[in-house]
Records
---
Amino acid sequence: MGDFHGFDTAKIRTMAGDMKNAGPGARTLHGELASVLRDAQALLKGAQPASKSPVLEALIPQVLPLLYAGLPASLHAELDTTADSIRRRCAQLDRVHTLEEQGYSIDPGLDFDDEKAPDKKNIDDALAYFDDHIDDSGGFLWENSAQGAKEVLKRFSSLTPTELDAVMSRMSVDQLKKLNAQVGEGSTFWGAGDSDGTVKAQWVNLLTSELGPTTLARMQSTLTHLPWQPNLHTDYVKNLKYQAIDGTLYGPSGDIDLPKDMSQGDDGDCWFLASLAAVSARDPGFVRDHIKVNPNGTYTVTLYRAPVPNIDGLTGQPVEVTVDNQLPVDHSGKPVYAPTPDNVMWVAIYEKAYAQFSGGYQNISGGLGDQGMHEITGLPTTLTTPGSMSLADMNQKIKEGHAVTVDSVPHLNSVDDRLVGEHEYSVQSVNTEAHPPTITLFNPWGRNSEKMNPPVPATVTVTESQYQQYFREVSSTKTRA
């Protein structure tokens, strides 16, 4: 199709074909390398390894290297996968080019996305569906002015991100005004009622996670009845604003490093951050499995809504919450809640998603670990007292994969200046072999602990008798079903 936005898709497709053709040779190459390494190892007679590379060491013991299926021979599959992705992206780019020639506007940020190529018919059908259904309601006796917005939402959710972007970009000013009015209304009885918060949240999630950045910015300024950002003010701080913060989800290693990454800011959500610390410490892969980076650079976090009525033993329902990288900052541009030490974002993104989930940052101030861990994992939690859970009991729970938090008694700092009263801690470990047994706790203040007045350590170890004296509640849960 020639050059479009700097891409020549014909040449790129040729490159993808070359990669696919090279894949089968990778297995033979690695087999030959394994044979050389095994011969070298035999000549060395165990005096030293033939290679100290962790990748190459895996090849040395292979008896049949040509049949080797693990790393690094997986290059064969990786070449296939990459070539297929490139071909899909080329199809996407070509179709976007065609649509733009036909007068459709699509955010350039989506031009080379790895998704099913957009279909003009889907775009036109969605626009027609909007006109036919946006005014739908629940009837005369129980009017639901948001019914049309809910039906359109369901239809638009079936579109690819590029198709959705084209639809929203093509909507007229009058259509957008009508959509904004419909999501601002809701279920009524004889004309009285509140807007449907669930429908609003679902619209925000859909548009935030899928639209290109330019189209999204336009929708945020036009659809003013949608709660694009959680309320950013609390009883602790005022006069804040949202500002985009550049960073990466995780540190250079790609792993979670709690002492470096976690640091509570000026919100009273120690209970939530301690819950997050406890879950991620017990299950390091949990956070990665519950934060998805969207193609447009936003983040979708999976949280869990407690069943109604909240019956012990029932699992929560998953709720996807999509947020961007804009965080509440003060007049100097400094994040005021969970900060981003070394530009690591995962804690701040999780906290923002939970604030959106809860209706604002002010609504996550104050709580206990059982609630936090339930809404993070969706699994049943246990809330008990130190008198009902010995350190031996807790140690057994930790061995079984439970995350555990503890809540301290008031005015604890006057008794033990290492600790903070009425504060939630995550449990790092229990040592039942010590005399007496001990428990090691992590303060979600993290790096900020040493900056407090007075300063306190981020990690504290106390004896079993101190645990019984200093803490009033213990929360625990499994991290996986």
---
Amino acid sequence: MTRRVVIGLCVLMMMAAGTIIARAQSGRNPAWRFGVVGAYEAPDEARDLGVGWERITFDWAAFQPEGPDDFETDALEEAWLEAAEEADREVVGLITHTPTWASDSGAVDAVPNGLNFPLDNPANVWAAFVTRLAEYYAPLGVHHWIIYDEPDVRPGEGVVQFAGEVEDYAAVLWTAYRAIKAVDPDATIHIAAMNGWTDIAAGREPYLARLIQVLQADPGAAEHNTYFDSVTVRVGTATQAVSDRLAEAQAILEGMPGKTIWLETSISPALETARQQDVPLLGVTPEHQADFIVQAAALGLAADAERFSVYRLSDSEDEALPWGLIRANGTHRPAFDAYRMVIELFSPTLSATRYTRDDAEMIVFDQEDREVIVFWARGTTSVRFAIASPEIGENATLYDTQGRRRRLISDDTVYPAAFTVEAPAALPDENGFLTVAGSPYILVLDKQDALRVVYVLIDSERFRLR
């Protein structure tokens, strides 16, 4: 017989330790934390989703195809920027692809020539380009720049997007930081998102740690804020990896105040019938994709990630796997509704705190006039949550990952009163991997003066969780 775990939340007056993640955001889109890659491809759908920002690629090779005197602004459709402005979506630019003329090899992943020259020397073609890019797009509202992508992937480990070594990427980064800040002091410079798994597989020290060491060794590092403002942590598929990768990045950045962390997630529903792979490594279903987005967003906020994004809005014909919230035929995957619900319910959060055991996971969001509790089973045992209420007859709203909701009324199941919800067990995929935790629920309650303490009851034993 399957063992059941009962988690009871009782009310107790006490101070709770929570991570403060709300910041003064007057005049900002309430959904400013939540973004998506590729919103410009389906702007009406992006507006319906409700995201507050989007990532757009600025292809250096397209802007300057023939030489440094080029600046082809039609390399990026300004209609994309206009649509973003109309929808109150902030644009974050990802700069990629070295032009053939700008390096010795002519490859798109090559290190640009001239990085050892001063910023104002035309021979430093990278500095000249990013200066021009920032000058042109800052008045159009673009003030966030990500410098290349996944420089940690080495030949033989996957798609190489930056062929240089750590020292080469450091030179690219500190050149971009100084050049862009010189013309747009309000700009935010982001270190490229890392693949992460390549370092783990190769047994290497994390790329971010190696990069920080090189940056801090530069004589101008202290004067120039170590040449970056933010780091993006990229995580795909595994629920547990979200917390692990965020904790790793935070440990690396310890002692560097003011640096922010953004979380980008991606998960491909490889088992979807319409895009069935012959032998998918991870048997992720569309329902898993929806569950993962809710879990990752909750864990990200609890870990004080400043922003959260999903890769990507729509499937791309250029990619073998389906990654989108929207299928190629325009229909929504369950993850679309899940993410829309996340944005609606999580945006007003003032602080978030994580509580975890081997059996169960819970994130509590403190909001102005309500408390939002996200919870799920971590393993292969279903978990029954009993959320204590001060009285019988209290109302609450329960959401599943599809945004379906129903009213709950507290009863006397647990003394003196409680809401009870059973979260299903996580299901291993066809290869036996337990990648995505059990399907989560979200409970929205009126805020009480008393804080809720959490107890876990296992085989009639009670353990305090919160």
---
Amino acid sequence: MWKGRFHAEPRLQILRFTQSLDLDWRLFEYDIEGSVAHVRMLCSVGLLTEEERDKLVEALREIKAEIARGELPPSIALEDLHLNVEHRLIEKLGPLGAKVHTGRSRNDQICVDVRMYLRDQLKELRVKTRRLLNTLLELAERDVDVIIPGYTHLQQGQPISAGHYWMAYFWKFLRDLKRLDLAIYNTDENPLGSGALAGSTLPLDREFTRRELGFSRNTENSLDAVSNRDFMLDFHYFASTFMVHCSRLAEDLVIYASGEFGYVELPDEYCTGSSMMPQKKNPDVLELIRGKAGQVFGHLLDLMVTLKGLPLAYNRDMQEDKRGLWAALATVHSVLDILPGMLSATRFNQERILQSMRDGFILATDVAEYLVMKGVPFREAHGVVGRAVRDCFDSSRTLFDLTLEDWRRYHPAFDEDVFEVLDLQRAVDRRRTYGGTARSEVRRQLERGREILRELD
């Protein structure tokens, strides 16, 4: 390809080091479709005859089928996918095959290949993310009447509806869906025709290839087009925040499924056992989701560090941009394939959960706010209830054990209606502030969530 400039051929060792076939061979369908669009455009502007166009398109289709059948193994002597395809085209058509690269550089060629491939992948991920969001809505509706402890610092704080818990993750993953939509939008640009860096002196019609390849718009600057990997970063941002949320959810469920908590029962088909300890039911799937999150974060950082010191426009460092991209795509796909089914089959153990709240201390804030409604300043009310909790600890009693006489020893504002406050279900339903855990609010969130998903479709 560049023999005219060099006196010697690259050593085999160098060819092995510089080849990109392990990264770009998977793009063959997109590479050939890009070439077909390019050939048709060349014909439309008079750089190829119709006969030449038809022969090139037919041969490109044949090569695509050969690769799909495994009949055209990649050669590292040809360095990358593009040159392997072009070499085979020349084998088939002679000098005509060499015309396929007219007005094109591998710089804009790889950009269009990756953008088309990634666009399809992101659309698949969107369908799967949407399925996860639907699953969370179903779980929130199913478990709206289940009461669980809400935690801060992994200490019981206030009672909440389990539906509220599931909706918390719905809103997190909904933000991920919006980040994914931004990545799809930014990927959907046609770079073909940008050339190596400055466009072309030939009368290329970029609008023609844009339409042929289904892009919504053309890139605006050739120098930016071949150096831009922001669209990949947008995917990595989505993937990273998505895995943050998956990891936090996995951590919750690992804890809640432990013998010490026993709040949830995980489905057997998503767990494994121990090679030594017969009693074990290990949440391996959740642990692997948690463990894989760090790898995805690393791929984001990897690309950012690669790009941060590169001068415009293209540099060979950018060949490595796909290694982390493929890995992150595979991880996110695998998690989205597993998570909805696992969550749907997970059940809360309400009896065990209620037992964990039997001391009533999770209602301490409700009692303090009861006093506030009686006109007691909150800070004073906080101290009053804190002393009651401390005394219950010291005497091995619960808040449910205290009589009206006991309560009045702490403050004269207590009356018979304090016992209405000491009810878990009422405590949940009293939290009717917008976005709160009251069942009425959870149902409002459910309707709002469904409405937003309809708007995003």
---
Amino acid sequence: MHKVARSMNMHYISSRGGIAPVGFKDALLQGFAADGGLFIPQQIPRFSRAELEEMGSLGFTDLAYRLIRPYIPVDEIPDQDLKELLLSSFASFTDTRVAPVIRKGPDHFYIQELFHGPTQSFKDIAMGFLVGCMDYFLQKDQKSLSLILATTGDTGPAAVAAAAGKKSMNCWPLFPQSMISEEQRRQMTTVDADNIHPVAVTECANGGDDLDIVVARMFNEPQTKSALKLSSVNSINWGRVMMQVVHYFSGYFQTVDSLDQKVIFSVPAGAFGNLCAGSIARKMGLPVETFICATNQNQTLHQIFGQGRMHKNQLIQTVSSAIDIVLPYNFWRFLSLHSPDPSITKTVMDRFEQEGHIEFEPTLYHHFAQGFSSVSVSDEQTLSTMRDFYHQYNYLLDPHGSVAVSAAREQQQKETPIICMVTAHPAKFPDITSLALGEEVARENRHPAIEATMQKTETMHTCSCHELQETLTELIQTLLAH
């Protein structure tokens, strides 16, 4: 029998340091902390070598249980309930490994496929569990919530799939019109469920970042948040980041023969939730040599890790649209977890919000950037890598996976295994596949679940970005009144 670490007293604080500690349930249901910060655990559990060796042979669900149990007090979710929530979260995945690793590419190259969930995106890995936990708490308390979330493509479909039909919640995915693929849009707008309410938003010069600002503003107004019963399942929510820790451990155990080996992870990065989870996995004891922060031409994260500065840039629309993000909000959570002084994050955030740019103090920069490298990948490189990988290795990358592979090629070391995270099925981006390899390749790599949405009628609300808060408030108020 494996000994499982339990948490009877794990509490969560804000990255801005302005609230009293709360429990797991409150952190999950609130989304944003009351002071506008992001929830972080007061401590990160660290596993011993012996414990890691025991975990190495576990399947994904059992591994997830071992890794997240310390973050969730047993008096909030008892053991058996947690196990059932996890089993339910991954029941619809088409690969029993959930996040399989395959050997593809040059020597020491591996691909971790994170797209075997119900909406063919890595967001499914955490979303089913997060929404399941929220529903668990809400049903016990006989309460309901309005989930609002901004999406640049994959978060929205994953949230819709997880929330559809759940009576404890209404789900409002907000997406920038014409800045996501038709396939991604239809995964939100063709779901036949009374509690799903997609909103197409026009006039978003900065794409999903503009939507994030509106969402944050609504959460920062206590009266609005309370009256509309607001919560969110974006990666602002601690539950998403916590569960994403698991696929790093799973990918590592599938790749190495011994805990003496370290690996490199190359991760396509936008809002920084996935890489924030990776950094937590390393704090928990995972032997990671380097994380490659793979960005497109929206270079905020590349500037942070490569140059020690952060600047509010204009959005550039790229072929890797899901990571077209210029304000990586999970960086603040990451900074809180890696700062020697908790007050630093609030100071840095306030300065950035006031001035739109910041140069990190050298000691702080070297502290948080240790074990990270970054690469900015152009559209031309993304398409070229899609072509090369397909012709050389008979493997079709989606554009975001291509960003990760492109970055890894630039930074590959001779002996260290390098795991490239492929975060979506290429069938979600047929136009980009056609651009890189032609329409025939795109047709040959369709996905039946995505094709099914093409035959269904779309239903959505539409408004401009400057009217979004008012429109969304009216829609939610009308729904709650019935």
